[in-house]
Write a structure and sequence with these properties.
By secondary structure, the chain is α+β, with helices and mostly antiparallel strands. 29% of the residues lie in helices and 31% in strands. Strands 2-3-4-1-5-6-7 form a 7-stranded mixed beta sheet. Strand 3 and strand 4 form a beta hairpin.
Length: 119
């Protein structure tokens, strides 16, 4: 199995976990640019509820919008969005994938602290 295949499978695991835990929402994945390249992204579009706005071209993976960010760690963060790509107006847990271990868990203060300390 190639590194790209392993990464794609782990990211699919993250998406499946998020969808199982919070089936009401769509998901946006925040990844490092080098991770984005491994995912073989597909073109997609977001539509605005106001027909006066043109669709926004985006990249997707496994039906999720992708955002390439300068993340400090080798992780993928899954954040809930509505059908139009907007952040929900209520608290919805986010989930993350540690690409060094393949572990998926809820993004919490404790998880962030562990990540920043390298434990």
């Amino acid at each position: 199995m190639t590194t790209n295949d392993w990464t794609q499978e782990r990211v699919r695991d993250l998406v499946a976990h998020a969808r199982q835990e919070q089936p009401r929402w769509s998901w946006k994945l925040s990844v490092r640019p080098e991770t984005l390249a491994m995912l073989d992204p597909k073109p997609g579009a977001l539509t605005h509820p106001d027909p006066g706005f043109a669709p926004l071209d985006i990249l997707t993976f496994d039906g999720c919008e992708l955002a390439a960010l300068d993340l400090l760690w080798d992780i993928v963060l899954a954040s809930a969005v509505d059908a139009h790509g907007f952040t929900p107006n209520q608290v919805v847990p986010s989930y993350w994938l540690d690409l060094s271990t393949g572990v998926v868990e809820e993004w919490t203060e404790e998880a962030h602290t562990r990540l920043t300390r390298g434990t």
